[in-house]
Amino acid sequence: MSNAGLLVFTGVWGLDPTFLSEECYNELSMGKAIVAENITYSYNHHLAVDHISFHIDEGEILGFLGPNGAGKTTTLKMLIGLLTPQDGKISILGMDIKKDLRKIQAQIGVCFEEKNLYEDMSAIENLNFFASLFGKKIDAEALLERVGLSAQRKDRVVNYSKGMKQRLMIARALVNQPKVLFLDEPTDGLDPVSAEVIRKIILEEKEKGVTVFLTTHDMMEADKLSDRVAFINEGKIVALDTPDNLKHEYGKRILKVRYQKDSELKEEELPLESEKTPERVREILSSYHVRDMHTEEATLEDIFIQFTGRSLE
Question: For residues 311 and 301, what is the distance between their CA atoms, to the nearest angstrom?
């Protein structure tokens, strides 16, 4: 890449992406499962997604997090071709989404929060039908066993619980052996067992080299599963990094001490980086009965609130 190309490469992720040439854009897309450059979408003059740029490497899980109305779903719909960006470019698996949408859709799997299944059909009938749309023959029973639905494979979906339907949605997203998975709130409202089954499958797909674009309201889930997370707020990406980097750069580590002072239980939070903390700890230990003491680091939720001013819920 030329020096000019290197300058543009820097710009596309943090500076002005409008200078990116077609040649540099194609070069940048190499080795990336998803490249979004300067993508924009508005509804009735309301800018839902405001010129955002990001990329996802092959085999990476990106947690895409934001409060309701922040632009998550609109971004997702642009990435899978349900909406056309009003500005900017999207590349999936090295292909331009405007030129090669059908080829792209043959290689991606999508699981929306809404359950769009054929409820009068059985689980196995659903999977075989959706596989036929891709021209594929699958081992539907093996796929249902993987999501824990083997025993209910011939039951009509209308009789399934919410968790069972969600597991079937995950199975349906895998029928074409996708290279990229788009998962919209895959464990929302599920019982712990169903949620853990789905998380296990997500990590198994990552191990196979599948790229995952994940939206979730569960910050602990995002922290556990994601290689990197992007915070979107009011249509703009306000932070994008690994969960650990975000917590270490923007969070604070504290020492929480609870001690008995006369008849009152006191609690103090002491910053670990402060030079005054060791002396204060010695004072407390020598003067009071300490009930407990432990360190505490910032959570991803804490960092999210710093950037957006509100919680994920």
Answer: 7
**Which CATH number is correct for 3-241, 3.40.640.10, 3.30.200.20, 3.40.50.300, 3.30.565.10?**
3.40.50.300
Distances (CA, A) of 60 to 47, 124, 226: 28, 30, 8
> How far apart (Å, rounded) are the C-alpha atoms in residues 261 and 275?
24
The pTM (predicted TM-score) of the whole model is: 0.81
pLDDT in tens, 166-201: 999 999 999 999 999 999 999 987 889 889 989 999
* Spatial distance between the Cα atoms of 215 and 188, rounded to a whole number of angstroms: 10
Q: Report the distance separating Cα 153 and Cα 158, nearest Å.
A: 13
Condensed to tens digits (0 to 9), the pLDDT of residues 3-12 reads 333 333 333 3
Token pair belonging to 113 = 């929060």
* Cα–Cα distance measured from residue 258 to residue 285, given in angstroms and rounded to the nearest whole number: 11
